Amino acid sequence: MSPLDYLMIAIRVAFSAFVPLCFVAVCVWMERRGAGYFQDRSGPNRAGIFGFRAAGLVQNLADGLKLAFKEDIISQHIKHKFFFVLAPVIVFFTAVVSFAVVPYADTLVLNGKSYMMQGIPVDLGILWFIALAGFSVYGIILAGWSSSNKYGILGSLRSAAQVISYEIPMGLAIVSLLIVYGTVSLNEMAQFQGKLLFGFIPMWGAVLQPVGMVIFIIAAFAECNRTPFDLAEGESEIVAGFHVEYSAMKFAIFFMGEYVAMFASSSIIVTLFFGGYQIPFLSTATLLNWAKPVAFLLMIALPVVMYFFAGWIRRSNVSHYPRENDPRVFEANVYIKCFWGLIVILELVLLAILFSPSGGAAASIFVALLQICTLLLKVTMMIFVFIWVRWTLPRFRYDQLQKLGWQMLLPLALLNIFITSAVVVALS
Questions:
Q1: Partners of 279 in the β-ladder
Q2: Among 2, 44, 85, 328, which has the minimal tally of Cβ within 10 Å of its Cβ?
Q3: What would you report as the CA-atom Rg of the chain, rounded to the nearest whole angstrom?
């Protein structure tokens, strides 16, 4: 193996490991700011370092430090301490590893060699995600059972019943997708969605399988234990459910796992139904052929976008009452200077691409970076949907949850398979 091969392996593994972890902070921030917005109140805006609040992101750091230094209590009545400690690790590990097969860019070709842009370059694709998503419930079951607490056991039983109820419709929704795509490889599914239907409609899964998309997204909410499917930790009924006995970092790991699972589920949803890393109307081949014009357009667009973004920062960082030497204005000016510095660096990178040889390695790397940014943007928008639903809908009753899974989603998923099969056979 050449040094380039080792470098690409390191980059792939680092991206698949660190991006989900970094998005934990983004998800927590979006959750709090979104909750504040939907409830017509301010989100976190007080915690700061030397006056810099970073729009509430510093609150995440404060909470992380609090949980890290908080006393870690394991009650004396807990008999199975090993499984009690292992449970949050299982939930967190399965959530991180489930993202490892998501392609974040098309196959990168450098010096005649092809590199799959996935943490684990395998073709198992969606099968890997289904297996790990089902395995994560073992951590919840272990947490409830090892807690020796009736509320914990009730929460773990609810979670197990919920996973069984919603994994079946999720699997059937995927079957209808496999009929359309003809592959289990997530990278090949994303490449398929780079085509155009009737010459002007992106062939996204949401267009080809709208019913399957709705079923899969609902099931993904249930798999992540997100409202309205959070009966496993319903505080109004079973206090906190499976994590009632957890404190400090073990408690934090459970909820880091929840947010990583939300990021991984959003990545899978985007890859299956919203084109993955594909930019609408711009396939990988098109981007490679038009890399320099695209770079030139970005050179023009970035300063314009930054100008309006800087105006928004100035309007949003002003005290609600007149203050001499307003510290929020100073904070906003520092942020604006930092962002303009980032824009200058990006402009220099784009300028280097304009002067690089056409169709060379620089163009391939540029296209890969564009596709990575596209995927992360789509995933962020899907995470917002998760948060939007949480702060809009109330929690289902247990009978409503089971009725939705068994009496509505399951027959609908089966019907969708029959209709999809009939259409595919007829068109073939």
A1: 282
A2: 2
A3: 23
pTM of the model: 0.89
Domain boundaries along the sequence of the chain: 3-43+55-278+356-427
Label each residue of 262-321 as H, E or C.
Answer: HHHHHHHHHHHHCCCCCECCECHHHHHHCHHHHHHHHHHHHHHHHHHHHHHHHHHCCCCC
